[in-house]
Design a protein that fits this description.
Elements: H1 9-37, H2 40-45, H3 52-59, H4 63-75, E1 80-81, E2 91-92, H5 95-102, H6 112-115, H7 117-122, H8 127-133, H9 143-166, H10 172-179, E3 182-186, H11 192-200, E4 205-209, H12 213-226, E5 231-234, E6 247-253, H13 262-272, E7 273-284, H14 290-296, H15 300-315, H16 331-340, E8 345-348, E9 356-362
Length: 363
């Protein structure tokens, strides 16, 4: 740390650039939200190229607004254009951009977080009070669109890889699924993983638990639509997770770090799981220190910011919440907590994922 207070002109320019590049990212994120919400990406993906006029016509939108949006997108290098000097430039999406922006069943699809961007950023309005009181806000503070955004964020990868890649490496637990297992999905959200597993393994039964009323409403709607007779959804505050060691498998997908009482939840999971059962723990990749997270994760600033607005806010939404936050559950921390909860086996699974780590935890 320097004590010299003299301003270096070049360093000042670089600091200003850094600051306003963050603002550019925030504003362009808003434009991505609009592109998704208005169907602009899907319309672009369906053709060989569009002018602002043809794209506006496809969607019954005003050309001038579409033109300015396209200018933002091409300047941000998200939408492509081969000749910006043309009188009527033709804009298009590369195959890679189509996967990320306009293909909901592709594992790289990325519109979920942008779907809930207005709700996430709206948290800024009540964050000052959280900083003063220490009390955050649960996921229902983001409204029903927040639940849909979470669904759209995680389901593309799950739909592609959960059944063929993740579950088979669980060994005997996978065999139990095929023959008939009792499974709990704790923190099930809108039910995508539970419904997918229920459809794939009709001999097994699945109980989904979540405290988000918006997510549970969505899960019940999807269950009815899909006719899933072997899947049920509950609020654990009114239908407690049984402590009779009756579950063969328990899953937690990206939720332990969001919980106000993760230590208590791990003990609950141990009490619910059979002595020969398996807990599939999936959570955000994290290191054991700020230094490692910053130096090894290029998305650390994003994840710490999302933590303030969403994950840690949820984890501190009750007095004395443990507040793990988005990057709060490293492998070492998770193993220590699991062993303290009564588990004796903690195995990191060899599954490639850009954001998550996967563990098989057993009594």
């Amino acid at each position: 740390m320097t004590t010299d207070k003299t301003i270096n002109a070049d360093a000042l320019k670089m600091t200003s650039f850094q600051v306003f590049s963050k603002l550019e990212g925030a504003v362009t994120s808003g434009m991505i939200h609009l592109g998704d919400r208005l169907g602009l990406y899907v319309a672009l993906a369906q053709g060989d190229g569009d002018t602002s006029a043809s794209l506006a016509t496809k969607l019954s939108l005003h050309e001038r607004w579409v033109r300015e949006w396209l200018h933002n997108q091409v300047a941000a290098r998200l939408v492509s254009c081969d000749d910006l000097s043309a009188e009527d430039p033709v804009f298009y999406l590369t195959p890679e951009a189509i996967a990320v922006f306009a293909t909901p069943d592709h594992p790289a699809y990325g519109m979920g977080m942008f779907h809930r961007l207005p709700q996430t950023m709206n948290a800024l309005n009540y964050m000052p009070e959280s900083f003063r009181t220490g009390i955050g806000h649960d996921y229902d503070s983001h409204g029903p669109e927040g639940a849909v955004g979470i669904e759209r964020s995680f389901e593309p990868w799950n739909q592609n890889f959960l059944v063929p890649v993740v579950l088979p490496v669980l060994g005997r637990a996978y065999e139990a699924l095929k023959s008939g297992a009792k499974v709990a999905d704790i923190g099930c959200g809108s039910g995508g993983a539970a419904l997918l597993m229920g459809k794939t393994f009709p001999n097994s039964t699945f109980d989904g638990f979540d405290i988000s009323q918006f997510a549970l409403e969505r899960a019940q709607e999807r269950k009815k639509s899909e006719g899933a007779s072997n899947v049920s959804f509950y609020d654990p505050r009114t239908h407690a997770i049984s402590q009779d060691n009756s579950y063969d498998i328990i899953c937690t997908f990206d939720c332990i770090h969001d919980m106000t009482r993760p230590t208590e939840m791990m003990k609950t999971i141990r009490g619910a799981l059979k002595d020969d059962g398996t807990w599939l723990l999936v959570d955000i990749k994290a290191h054991d220190s700020l230094e490692l997270n910053v130096s090894k994760n290029p998305m650390a600033s994003l994840l710490y910011g999302i933590s303030v607005l969403s994950c840690m806010s949820s984890a501190m939404s009750e007095p004395d919440g443990e507040g793990l936050g988005t990057l709060g559950l490293s492998a070492q921390k998770a193993e220590s907590m699991a062993r303290n909860a009564g588990f004796t086996s903690f195995e990191r699974l060899d599954i490639d994922h850009s954001v998550n780590s996967f563990y098989a935890v057993r009594p």
